[in-house]
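Exercise 3.2. Students should predict the tertiary structure of the chain below and write it as structure tokens, then compare their answer with the key that follows.

Predict this chain's 3D structure.
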Amino acid sequence: MAWKLSGFIIFLLAVFIAVPMLIEATGRTDLYYVFTSVALLSIASAGVWLTFYIGRINIGQGAYALMGGYVSAILVMYYGWSFWWTLPVAGIFCALASILIGYPILRLRGVYFAMVTLILTEVMRLLALAVPITNGAKGITSIPPPGPLTLFGITLVPDFATLQNPRIAFYYLSAVLMILCFAALYRLVHSRIGHICMSLQQNEELASSIGVNIAALRVMAYAISSFFGGLSGAVFIGATQSIYPSSFTVTDSVNFMLNCFLGGLGYVFGPMLGTLVLYLGWNLLFSTEQYQLLIYSGVMIILMLVLPNGLLSLAALKRKG
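Answer key:
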């Protein structure tokens, strides 16, 4: 237990102190956006990991990130909502939508769920192109930065428009949300419900025979997963101040899965590490130009073969050794 607490403290120090200090020392303030993206993508990937945890393959998380982004943008631009109120609303809206979609198909075998989620992102993109309120291919632009967040007259978060460098604020916001989401996921997995969810991976028939409501657990996990996706999409539009139908594509949905695989499906924090390595790795290979995708794919295949249980399995192998 002590080493877990020590590791968590070191992680907090790295996120909130070491990374900002290194960025300021190097003068690469653009890296704030990079690490903000990593934090937001890891939140969405955490939702995908949860559906893997119940034995289902989710290839449609990009749809909920796009949906959450549009919900936030529409409420801010057309109805004058505060950005901060749109965050939980976007997540809840995506969770409710996922219940409508998931309730009928999560009763079926996993292959049908995977096939449906595969087309969700493209369906959402086409809806964004067709529905007038989303402004079609032009998207929603010039979204104002988040205003102040106050509670009982006390300003908890200042107006982002008054900050000299809002990228720092978005970095800290994304980092805090990432930590809260993964803390909630960790608590869920290590709760009684989490242990029951794990039983679905092993033998669904046996779990059903002892009175476990399998369909309800699947829908619950999928709703939480979609909430994470919607939340990440809502913060994303605040950071970029725009959203388009192509902001999240099928490729992003596939990458959310790859983040889980690379980090380790057996580890709660696998999506976080996988997102960091994949996102930074892709950017580091940018200089290779036309060979970028070839090298990226080759390295991914090798890592999957050498470390089938993900990068975090290295720690377990080291302890065994």
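Discussion points: The longest strand covers residues 154-157. The beta strands are 149-151, 154-157.
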